[in-house]
Amino acid sequence: MTDSPTAFRSARDSGYLLCSDCEKLHYLSQEGLHCDRCGARLHSRITNSMNISWACLIASILLFLPANLLPIMTFKTFGQGEPSTILGGVLHLLEEDMLIIGLVVLTASIVVPVLKMIALTILLCTVQFGLQTNLRQKTMMFRIVEWIGRWSMLDIFVIGILVALVQLGSIAHIEGNHGATAFAIVVLLTMFSAIAFDTRLIWDNGISDCPPDSTDHKDDQ
Amino acid sequence: MQGTPKHLIACHECDLLIERVVNQPDQDVVCPRCHARLYYTTLNSIERLLALSIAGLILFIPANLFPILSLHVFGQSQSEIILQSALSLYEGGLEVVALLILLFAIVVPLIQLIALFYISFTLHYRWEGRLLRQAMHSYQHLRGWGMLEIFLLGVLISIIKLKDIADLEIGLGLYSLAALIIVITLSGIFFNPHQIWHQIDLHRKQSRFYD
Q1: What is the CATH number of domain A48-203?
Q2: Interface size, chain A vs chain B, as Cβ–Cβ contacts under 8 Å
Q3: Hey, which of A57, B100, B193, B204 has its CA 20 to 30 A from A172?
């Protein structure tokens, strides 16, 4: 029992694979079969990870343009009113001295999606070109991006609530426009891109950038 | 069906092969290379999940049936339940957005609560549980797709946007929604996939033994 795996070897290099659903360890030779504990199909890495992740990312970057250029909703009072874009809505909030709310919407609708796209591009390039720097930081970046990306749906929910609530005929009403569809699909695609991305690919290119034996579990006895 | 060495585990984020160590209940075991949390112990996980999923299923009803907000202007009023957001967008021609709101704010949270109830109920009362694996897969794959807390933030922003224009009244639905979000968040914390899969494994072996 004392033959501990020396230095840093991946499970795949040692002839094992991890079930992606229940995280039970299997032999690499069982790839393509079903996990005997949870029934999921066994894969050493997510199938077509890079292709799917790149495809979703590029599609989301392209759709980000119409999402920001097309109006997302129209607020009409007594028959008057103009459609507004995402940025227009944020500027309107800032003009009305609703600084904090304006910043929250700005962060969720523009800053987070842009940062997420940049982060995914960096991660995909890391794997694509076999870069070997700051792997731990990149893994951390992926965790943050994966968690925070869903908050971009905020503006979509706000539109949904406003459209449902402000339906007072000719006095005031709000309707949604197709910029909202584009934006919702942008968020959806970046989420798909993150799901398809396999963080293990970052570490697959051989040398690791931190010394072995820097074991972090304090409970080693 | 040969077993792999029990003393080895692999990191799910960087695929590092490491030796399993015994952890205290309050200690997380962390990957030495990428710092991902590998496994940990949750005390009374199943019982807590059972209580939380029942509470969640109960709270789901008022959160979806009672109005979240009501708006009063010039003697006219309009109230909104969560479903109304999806319906109004659908009628306004934004079918995709309507579908996403329906999924993320209603369908996904409901499926997750039902799955969680099924998992914790069958494991706690040692029922047969033919669908345990499917319930676990559904719950795990839907993690991150339930967005009620984002919906709640959207409600707060809508309140601030509309408060100068109209009279707003906060409905019972909003309080239920807030409570539901707390319950769902707690159940996410107590959901320990390693432990539950292990229990499901034991459960299946036992029921096969009694057959």
Answers
A1: 1.20.140
A2: 229
A3: B100
